[in-house]
Amino acid sequence: MPQDYSTYILIAVAGFLATDLWRWLGVVAGHRLNEESEALHWVRAVATALVMAVTAKLIVFPTGTLAHAPLWLRLGAAGIGFAIFLMTGKKVAVGVLVPIAILIAGLLVVGI
Fold first, then answer.
1. DSSP characters for 28-68?
2. Selection from 45, 46, 47, 69 nearest residue 58 by Cα
3. How far apart (Å, rounded) are the C-alpha atoms in residues 16 and 54?
4. Which class for 93: exposed (0-12), middle (13-18), buried (19 or more C-beta within 10 A)?
């Protein structure tokens, strides 16, 4: 029985046009940009603000298993993880793994 793959091809092409095309254009145009320009400082600031907004939303208004964790545990894990991230020379792996470990330990202690 032959299958119609046109839907899958359309999804692949649309996905490419929506994401990868712009990434490649960014790479091509990025070689001409001055890394110390005000425009790039603004772009970095906006990107950082968006990431932090999503992070704050996940901490304060979580879903799934994390929603069962008390707020003090979520805030404490984030705060301690950030402090250790700074103390270890801004190592991303430490900044990710420490809060996860604190959350897991806290959830086991709380009994969730």
1. HHHTTS-TTSHHHHHHHHHHHHHHHHHHHHHHHS--GGGGG
2. 69
3. 25
4. exposed
Whole-number pLDDT of residue 24: 84
Burial 7-46 (b: 16+ CB within 10 A, else e): eeeeeeeeeeeeeeeeeeeeeeeeeeeeeeeeeeeeeeee
Q: What is the pLDDT of residues 69-88, one digit of tens each?
A: 999 999 999 999 999 999 99
HEC-encoded secondary structure of 98-112: HHHHHHHHHHHHHCC
Q: What are phi and psi of 25, to 5 degrees?
A: -65, -35
Residue 2 carries which DSSP code? Answer: -
Report whether 88 contacts 94 (CB < 8 A): yes
